[in-house]
Amino acid sequence: MTPQERAEKSAAAMWADDGASQWLGMSLDHVAPGAAVLSLEIGPQHLNGHGMCHGGIIYALADSAFAFACNSYNRQVVAQQNSITYLSPGQLGERLTATAREVALSGRSGIYDVSVTAPDGRVVAEFRGGSRQIKGQHFEETT
């Protein structure tokens, strides 16, 4: 199995059980070893009292991209620590894209950066996540 096939099969197994990302309206657009792209069109249900995308929705999108990136090696991985910086508001009707990339992976710990962008190219938020590998795989794999 190639690394790309492993990433795709891991993502398919995770997506099948990821009710939260699906319920929020996210789509899994791309996955590769140590990387993932998810997107979400901002609807009225995603807006806060200021009429812009709620920060929790943006955070959830970034966190989901982080999760698919760090779980792309068919190892069960969870978040150890996350932080986000909001830079510009997401607006109704925009499709936000969260692009996650692996920065470092050492033993059971990893660091991933996620940029959330709007269709016009502006950066909506920057997210950094720390991951920790736990026991288990997403699918049975023989070596």
> CATH fold name, please?
Thiol Ester Dehydrase, Chain A
Q: Number of folding domains?
A: 1
The CATH class assignment is: Alpha Beta
Count of alpha and pi helical runs = 3
Overall pLDDT: 97
- Pattern of helices and strands: HHEEHEEEE
Strand arrangement, major sheet:
1-2-4-5-6-3
Number of E-type strands: 6
CATH architecture: Roll
CATH superfamily: Hotdog Thioesterase
Unreliable spans: none
Main structural class: alpha+beta
Beta-strand share of residues: 35-45%
Q: What is the terminal-to-terminal distance?
A: 10 Å
Organism: Profundibacter amoris
Keywords: Hydrolase
GO molecular function, one term: acyl-CoA hydrolase activity
Family: Belongs to the thioesterase PaaI family.
